[in-house]
Amino acid sequence: MQYISTRGNDGPLGFEDALLSGLARDGGLYLPTEWPRFSIDEIRSMQGLSYTELAGRIMAPFCEGEIDQAELTSMARDAYAGFDDPAIAPLVKLNDNIHVLELFHGPTIAFKDYAMQFLARAFDRALQAHGKQAVILGATSGDTGSAALEAFQGRDAVDVFILFPEGRVSPVQQRQMTSVDAPGVHAVAVPSDFDACQDIVKTLFNAHEFRDQVNLSAVNSINWARLMPQIVYYFSSALSLGAPDIKVAFSVPTGNFGNVFAGYVAAQMGLPVERLIVASNQNDILTRFFESGTMQREAVAPSHSPSMDIQVSSNFERLLFELLGRDGNAVNEAMATFAKTGRFDVDASVLEEAHNIFAGYRLDDAATIAEIRHSATIDHMVLDPHSAVGVGAARMALADGTIPAGVPVISLACAHPAKFQDAVASATGETPALPTHLSDLMSRSEKQLFADATPDAVKALVLQEKRSI
Ligand SMILES: *Cc1c(COP(=O)(O)O)cnc(C)c1O
């Protein structure tokens, strides 16, 4: 499989090259030149596969010519061996219409583990094959960072620097990052918000000399190989409800648009998907886009679901590329306008096409707390604030008829409630307990670095702290 950039000026290149570079050299994001497609019979034949066998089956076409299905299955088996549920991504019934897909059974109890644990193995394999070393630089609104530091600790070929917005991640998230005590993995506190951290990362990726000097690479969700393992649980959950012989809808708590884009890919690959609900908190740039066709940047307003406190959803560029007929120049233009003015618009016909599969909803903090309380008391399920935004949006889409009666909604539970204890406790009156493997987390010692919110400060820190190369 070959990969090209959403901005039309990089590639085609193979899977491992796309994996190792993360962001394309023209500032765009990599996508496969075409979507692999399974027939209905092929999808039906996936019923009964284990999660890791399914992972090999789904990912094989994207790695064709480089990693075969058997090896992908064994990489997935290794990646998910430490997960604390044998189903890896179990589906639990909330009520007659909504099923909750639990994506918090990995080491950092958020869905980022599903991709990151796989990615670390893919990275290791690719770097070893090329005899190379790399510096991974990423920005996190909380969960990516802990998942990355967990997944990459102890890998000699890679130094990892994760920027996080100081004071804007939950205490559990922060301790998960700062308590990883291994050479070469660094949590870096930056006195700003997530978008500023992400801008620094983007700037340094566009500084080609620095990029080449340290062999810079990305593991945030702009990396195609981060999206790829996420496609698997869209298939596994839909198959378990009877797909491809029924249609399902998904409700996806959304920030950077990575997870929900993986759902879009699942649909392109042939999975019958009625609708993808893009669920946002009060940082509702995506909801507003799906309402109006205008992407308009606003200030980030901190919420109870900090991993979705985002105003620029990087992965949306992949959808834009699709919606604009895979025209890299048109994407380039829109993104340049957005960078300059904080706004771009799409034609009514483009918006209409988006509406064929997407619908946007928002829950503010009060609605999020109300949803946590409601699902705990009525449905006897304690949701974290992000998952609650997804379930609340699913209820709205069912109530207004966007999801026809009888179509099951799979709502993605992206974090364990104990990762966001304060919000959950304020809704239910009870503090959710951490799973056993994390019960001593808050007493582990912390190790972190600090950098000013400028590309130069971060660059200097990386050059000072990285081990070799
Ligand atoms: C990362 C994250 C999100 C947002 O996912 P995107 O892929 O960035 O849209 C939502 N909820 C939780 C708990 C997360 O960690």
TrEMBL record:
What InterPro entries does the entry give? Answer: Thr_synth_N, Thr_synth_N_sf, Thr_synthase-like, Threonine_Synthase, TrpB-like_PALP_sf
Q: What is its EC number?
A: 4.2.3.1
Q: What class of enzyme is it?
A: lyase
- Needed co-factor(s): pyridoxal 5'-phosphate
In terms of SUPFAM superfamilies, this protein maps to: Tryptophan synthase beta subunit-like PLP-dependent enzymes
Q: Which residues are recorded as modified (N6-(pyridoxal phosphate)lysine)?
A: 112
Instruction: Work out whether the entry's keyword set contains Nucleus.
Output: no
Q: Which GO terms describe its biological process?
A: threonine biosynthetic process
Q: Which GO terms describe its molecular function?
A: threonine synthase activity
Q: What Pfam family is a match for this entry?
A: THR4_C
List each copy of the Threonine synthase N-terminal domain by range.
2-80
The superkingdom of the source organism is Bacteria
Alphabetized, the UniProt keywords read: Lyase, Pyridoxal phosphate
Is the keyword Thylakoid assigned to this protein? no
> Which family does the similarity line name?
Belongs to the threonine synthase family.
PANTHER family named in the record? THREONINE SYNTHASE FAMILY MEMBER, THREONINE SYNTHASE-LIKE 2
Instruction: Please give the name of this protein.
Output: Threonine synthase
